[in-house]
Structure formats: C-alpha cells, structure tokens
Amino acid sequence: MENIGFLFDLDGVIIDSEPEYSRIWSQINREFPTGIESFEKKIKGCTLSKILEDNYEESVREAVCNRLHELEQKMHYEYLPGSFEFLSELKRRGLPMALVTSSDNKKMAHLEEEMPGFLEFFDFIVTAELVSSSKPSPEGYLLAAKQLNAKPEKCVVFEDSLQGVMAGNNAKAYVVGVTGTLGEQPLKPYSDVLTDSLEKLNIDNLIQSLNNR
User: Fold this and answer.
1) Where are the beta strands (DSSP E) in 68-154?
2) Within the chain, how many helices (H) and strands (E) appear?
3) d(Cα 153, Cα 212) in Å, to the nearest integer?
4) Rg of the chain (C-alpha set)
5) Which candidate, 186, 189, 102, 177, places its Cα nearest to that of 139?
6) Percent of the chain at pLDDT above 70?
7) Is 180 helix (H, G, I), strand (E, B) or coil?
8) Beta sheet of 174-178, edge-to-edge order
9) Closest CA to 87 of 77, 78, 96
10) Is residue 73 over pLDDT 90?
11) Using an 8 Å Cβ cutoff, are 64 and 52 in contact?
C-alpha cells in the first residue's frame, strides 16, 4: 500500500483563532486603511508577505507587520472541539501528519508557548518562511507530501479558507473543507467532503477514500 499523509491547516481547523484574527485584521485595516470591504475575510489563508505585497505600500509594510505581531502576542490559543482527539488518534495509529500554515515563525513560537507539545504531533511543519508562493498555490502541500514520502493524491488536506481548499485542490489532494469559518458554499467547489468539525470525521473512511484514488 502506498504511503498516505494527513496535512493540516492551523487556524480555523485545529485551533479556535479565526474570530480573533478577523478582529485583529479588521482593527489593522482601520489603522492602515486598504479601502477593501471585508478585508479580513478576503485575506484568510494568505501568508503575511502576500498580504503586505498585495495590499500595502512599501512605506507602511513594516508598521503593519509590527502591529500584527504586537496583537498576536496577546492572543490565547485553544483547540477547536474534537481536534486534539483527532490528532491524538492519528498519532496513536502512527499515521504521518504535517502542518501547512501561512503563519510565520514568530506566531509559531508564541503558539508553542500557549500550547506546549502541540507541534510534536507533526512529522513536518511548513510555515510561511518555507514557501515562495502563498495559498492557493499548492507549494506548501506539495512540500509537505514530499516530506512525508507520499504522493499528493494520497494525502488528505484539512482547510477552512477558500485559498486553502483551492491550494489542496491544486495539489490534487483529497480535500476536507472545514466550514466553521466561511460556511459550506465557498468551500464546496474545491472540497471532496465538508464538515463543521474534525470530531465528526471517521479516520477509517478517510483512509478508504485515499486507497480508492
């Protein structure tokens, strides 16, 4: 049997941070106006470098970046319902896992302080610093699959953002759209299955879906 892999986005899939990030980016957009309606929703899933390059003049990028990191350091992270148990069961079974996040290393360091041992779930971690192209580019997922020695089409991708499900789809992975952030409709065209929580997923069914591909 070919190697399989389970590839996870972070915010809105494993940890309950998306409402806080929406508040943070809405605040930043008030302080550094982009003129873009619902800015905090449109940037979900993008790396910070892409957000800065696409939406801010070079003269204010450092200030925006500093403000984001200032607000992030005040965040408290918690598992979404069922996510700790889901990751624990995958780990118990010895199934390969990778984290593919648009977050940078500063955010990940704070996350490890807030949730000690969390990063130990994963065999490989892709952060913004390891990719040259932000989601919906499949680069991060292709890198993770390679590191797990699995073909992308034999991997499950768990995503909650439009950019994220598109990235998983572009990687030819089996995409689970987690609907808690955006709802079903934006994710449906790019997802193989939809769920509002990881606790409602059956690992054996996911493995069977991969084996049937």
Assistant:
1) 97-100, 124-126
2) 9, 6
3) 11
4) 17
5) 102
6) 100
7) coil
8) 124-126, 97-100, 5-8, 155-159, 174-178, 193-195
9) 96
10) no
11) yes
- Nearest Cα neighbor of 6 from 123, 84, 98, 126 is 98
β-pairing verdict for 155-159 and 174-178: parallel
Count the residues in the chain: 213
Rounded Cα distance, 141 and 168, in Å: 7
CB 145 within 8 A of CB 174: no
The rounded distance, in Å, linking the Cα atoms of 115 and 31 is: 30
Contact 31, 95 (CB under 8 A): no
Residues contacting 150, CB < 8 A, separation 6+: 2, 3, 4, 5, 96
Q: What is the four-CA torsion angle of 190, 195, 199, 201, rounded to 10 degrees? A: -70
Q: How far apart are CA 17 and CA 75, in angstroms?
A: 8
In degrees rounded to 5, what are phi and psi of residue 144? Answer: -65, -45
Separation CA 43–CA 165 (nearest Å)? 14
Please say if the pLDDT value at position 1 is more than 70.
no
**Model-level pTM?**
0.86
Tell me if 125 sits within 8 A of 7, measured CB to CB.
no
Mean of pLDDT over the chain: 94
The residue among 155, 149, 99 whose CA lies nearest residue 127 is 99
Integer Cα distance of 147 and 62 in angstroms: 32
